[in-house]
Amino acid sequence: MKLIKSILIVFVIILNTPLTAQETGFSDLLQNIDSREKIELNGMWDIIVDPLENGYYNHRLQVKDDGYFKNKKMESPSDLIEYNFDTSSQLMVPGDWNTQMDKLYYYEGTVWYKKDFNYTIDSNELAFLYFEAVNYEAIVYLNGERIGSHVGGYTPFQFEVTDKLKEGNNFVVVKVDNKRKKENVPTVNQDWWNYGGITRSVHLVKTPISHIADYSIQLPKGNTKTIEGWVSVKNGKDGDAVNVSIPELKKNVNTVVQNGIAKFSMKTKPVLWEPENPKTYEVILKTATDKITDQIGFRTIETKGTKILLNGKDIFLKGISIHEEAPFKTGRVVSKEECKILLDWAKELGCNFIRLAHYPHSETMVREAEKMGFIIWSEIPVYWTIQFENKDTYANAKNQLTEMISRDKNRAAIVLWSMANETPESEARLSFIENLVEQARELDNTRLITAALDTQGYGKDENLIEDPLGKAVDVIGINNYCGWYAGSTESCSKLKWASTYNKPMIMSEVGGGALYGLHGEKNERWTEEYQAEVYRTNIEMMRNIDFLAGLSPWILMDFRSSRRPLKRIQDDFNRKGLISEQGMKKQAFFILRDYYLNENN
Ligand code: GCB
Predict the structure, then answer these.
(1) What topology is assigned to 303-596 in CATH?
(2) Does the Cβ of 455 fall within 6 Å of ligand 1?
(3) Is 575's C-beta closer than 6 angstroms to any atom of ligand 1?
(4) Comparing C-alpha atoms, which of 317, 286, 280, 318 is closest to residue 299?
(5) Of the four, 132, 208, 305, 333, which is 20 to 30 A from 493 by CA?
(6) Is residue 190 within 6 Å of ligand 1 at its C-beta?
């Protein structure tokens, strides 16, 4: 009886506990860290390459309590310490290790990173260690103590470390492991380089104790006259005042915190964000203790039958797919300048749309693209045959999806969240992706959901889109390699498409490979002429698809892939780029450019 009573009490307490900010579905990942005071932890980090994970396990394969994360130093000449960060090699952060050190080119395993920094304690502030991305698994230690871990190579994560910081010298150690595993997302099989390392920036972000953690500010679906949203406040209390203002619109609303969030709504008519005029407004959020400023654009996105409507108007998405690979030097993109080079090329190509494949790109990339007026498709690496039956795999994918939406939910440029790429049909796969769709809609009901389907019914005269996943998404993505993986180039212009769904379709991939500077007949593989012919005939095909709402051919620039060994042609590059990794434009670039500049305006 006593036991039942206590169970009941616990139950009642749970029911009565006010919902925290997490009514929103997001964690407390800090929004817009660039508007915060922070200590940059970029630059050279000391590293130890540890393929046997000797810094983590002892010789019985038990986790050590005095691993490399202790950053021990010899104190007397007789001490035995078999590592020393201070005399070790160094790597640049942000950056991948593969292109920084020859011996790490193919390396997949553990590397330990260590950075010293100075901190002055201020009892009025909190401190967060914020990682923009680490590929793939990170275990983070501060001053020798484990503070947390993260799985997934392309999304941000943070740890609140206020109580763990010391006055003066501190050190952070990160165990980074990029070993591919079957159960991971992506799995062991991927057509891009598995760049390891602390690939994006690291910051120590400072906030007031009661601070604005997160916010969502946008137009509701289909409504261009109301800006609404919420602001989540950490360590505040019910009734705390929050002020939201948009000076250019002469709007200023006061609201109050309840259960961790302050909701608001304002009637106004902003100039809408669109590719020709990527207008954003300065939005200021204030509490008694905190202030955040962001640049936010407003637009609506919907579908109507087979059309995509931006701000209520039919738009054709003239796009290109992009990997987050640096021009001229390869490796991961690490700077704003590199993002801009890629985006300038997409502009020159005549694009109003980019597919950021196959994982969330950096916040810098998204923000730069938004400023330049690109509509964005953003995706998680649910790629090919991952373990659809595995609950942990689902949890991992769901977490990456949540982190992606959490970071970018205020970016008007993003209109499509993509759940998956070329996944094989099965019951398990269907419910896995349907659950992701449901999660995405719960977190954000204002954008469109898509997935790139693998419909390559080569050899037939008509491709019928009937993948059951088509039912769950708003926009159907189709990856089609007519003229490259199957079917002659001539057959493409005659290929017909039909769909069981009355929905817009984006040709999310189409293309073929060419080595820049290699010339020959249009039926000779790897020549620029062959690739140009693939584009020519596929464009003819696309002209005849009346439910086509856009395309993002594969791909802007050649990119590294260890699936591509062909000597003197590929040399570890996927050659489907319209531009070589050295920035040279191939003939196909101009074929697509003509199509974009002269049609579908
Ligand atoms: C695809 C994949 C993409 C590959 C591309 C190719 O369908 O989605 O990741 O790189 O084909 O080049 O084969």
Answers:
(1) TIM Barrel (3.20.20)
(2) no
(3) no
(4) 280
(5) 305
(6) no
